[in-house]
Design a protein that fits this description.
With 204 residues, the protein is mainly α. It is built from ten helices and no strands. The protein has a single domain, classed as Serine Threonine Protein Phosphatase 5, Tetratricopeptide repeat. α4 packs antiparallel against α5, α5 crosses α6 and α7 runs antiparallel to α8. The longest helix has 21 residues. The radius of gyration is 17 Å and the shape is globular. The relative contact order is 0.10. The model has no long low-confidence stretch (mean pLDDT 95).
């Protein structure tokens, strides 16, 4: 077994790492892990993969980055897992620049095309998390392609991912950053940002 396989099995479920489940089936079973804020899940992430997150943040997992599945696993360790393990602290975002620097060469090599559609979502989320408009634009384009390519029965699922990408893009186009991160990162909010944060759906 490759060293990154336990992480991929945990994140997608064993069926989600092969051809045994559709994107909709994987999402139905794993969405709570991916997007719900649950203390027990955050704790489990740290217990199972906290050491690997630290290795990834320290640049010690280069050997994982030579093929698509290892590349994806490294992106998860840098982009998704810190948001769970270090939730509501500056360290939650510490891996973002590293993940972005790893993502783009992988896209250039076409590694995302060797992943399943539901796995590609978590590569493209690296761009969706960027406080950078060109990367946000790229995220929207990639999610739009995923939606267009989705099977009819799964178009609604991927339409939801595209909608979130477009919502993130609009925030960055307006503010150049995510205002909901300001307090965590010790940044002062402008009056416009403070007003925006009072609106429904202003926090991701």
């Amino acid at each position: 077994m490759q060293p990154w396989q336990p992480l991929l099995d945990w994140w997608f479920g064993a069926a989600g790492c092969g051809s045994g489940a559709t994107a909709a089936e994987v999402a139905a079973s794993r969405t709570a892990l991916w997007f719900a804020k649950r203390e027990q899940q955050d704790k489990q992430a740290g217990e199972l993969f906290g050491a690997q997150v630290e290795q990834a943040l320290a640049g010690q997992l280069q050997a994982w980055q030579g093929e698509p599945q290892g590349w994806l696993a490294t992106l998860l360790l840098l982009d998704q897992l810190p948001r769970m393990i270090y939730r509501d602290t500056p360290r939650a975002f510490a891996g973002d620049p590293i993940a972005q620097s790893l993502l783009l060469p992988g896209l250039a090599q076409g590694w995302d095309q060797q992943l399943s559609p539901i796995q590609r979502v978590f590569a493209y989320l690296v761009l969706e998390h960027a406080e950078n408009l060109p990367q946000q634009n790229q995220a929207v384009q990639l999610f739009r392609v995923l939606h267009e390519q989705a099977a009819t029965a799964e178009r609604e699922l991927f339409a939801g991912y595209l909608d979130y990408a477009e919502r993130h893009q609009r925030v960055i186009a307006r503010f150049g950053r995510f205002p909901h991160r300001n307090q965590i990162l010790g940044r002062n909010s402008s009056a416009e940002e403070s007003a925006f944060l009072l609106e429904p759906g202003s926090r991701f």
